[in-house]
Amino acid sequence: MNSSAPGISNQSLYSESEELNTLSSNVGDVLSHCNSLKSDIIEYGADACNDLQLLSELMLEFQNVRANMKALRSAVEHIEPLLSANDEDDENEIDFESILCRCTAEIPVDEEIISAVNAIRGYVHHNNRAASSENEEIQVVRETTENFEDPVTRRIITNPVKSVICNHSYDKSSIEVYLQKKTRCPVTGCVKELRKEDLIEDLDLKQKLAVKSGKKGNGGHEFTCKL
User: SP-RING-type domain: which residues (predicted)?
Assistant: First the structure.
């Protein structure tokens, strides 16, 4: 649909642009809050896998809404100079749909949200596989700290991330510093190349660390659960 210049003012476009910017910012705040809920769901949720799956779907929906708002705002900004030109020639028309399609294609993917959704999917997939073995009781936390050691610093991991290439886990701060100089996974024996873009949040290990911390608070009593 083509939109002609008469009836549209720069002032009204500015108002629309500011409103879209505010709405986009509000949706961004919601996305940040959703992202921060992952750890709470893992630690306190009665059905963490199902709740996380629903959360990831909501995050993708909100991200699509925000991307559409950004595209609309960009289209509005493209129209403003065209309106000024049309003031001199009222026969010219503005093809808003074409401008909007072009602006939509130019909106970049939100890598942070995609990374969070991939981390959730990895966690759900891992736990669903574990649950498929009937009557298989697995111990959530070992007494040793071997699985929780960061391969770079040899200290206990506090903010776990993992490679989507080799599935090894690291502490976020140490691996990011490590990757500034090296490109191979720091786990002994692993020859896989590693980039910062290959890292996602390790929700499974985050859950184990949370349970381990809870065990210490309960006097160190051992317990198991079925996933």
Answer: 134-214
